[in-house]
Amino acid sequence: MRKVINMAALVALAWGHVAAVQAMDLSVAIGQTDESTMTYRLGTQFDFQQSWFASDVGRLTGYWEAVYTYWDGDKTASNHSLSVSPVLVYEFAGERFKPYVEVGIGIAAFSSTELEDNDLGSSLQFEDRLGFGLRFADQEVGVRALHYSNAGLKKPNDGVESYSVHYRLSF
What we know:
The chain has one helix spanning 2-19; strands spanning 25-33, 38-47, 58-72, 79-92, 97-110, 114-115, 118-119, 124-136, 139-149, 160-170. It is mainly beta. Helices cover 11% and strands 59% of the residues. The strands form 2 sheets. It has an 8-stranded antiparallel β-barrel. It has a two-stranded antiparallel sheet with strand order 6-7. The chain has a single domain (2-170), classed as Porin (Beta Barrel). Strand 4 and strand 5 (97-110) form a beta hairpin. The chain has 1 helix and 10 strands; from the N terminus they run αββββββββββ.
């Protein structure tokens, strides 16, 4: 738990400096693992403020995300995690509605290495994501698949997947 608290303090300090420069977005998500563990996520995002490969079809952009996740297990005690990820987004062109696809790889720190029947092997995990959704006005709705694993750095490495729906509000 001490590692998670230290990481939370570091992330809060880093995001405090970034927030002074640009606006932040807030997101909430609810999801579930294949072992019936419910996930509740609360996050903040900071856009890259850049885009690449802009065309009539769309553009490539991205954001940084810092997230707290509560893992509500039905077989074992709950778990908590903090994660930080850079995320690349391909946003398709549109007037009012802009579909998008996103991918990202970040890091996560879990309060425990046990999650349902999974032994994560270490508190430090990599967070891989694939998602898609729709942006409109200053909002976004979408779905994501998240995979957590320590990439074989420590045995065992059971890993876990979470599938969620999310809502994001830009300020």
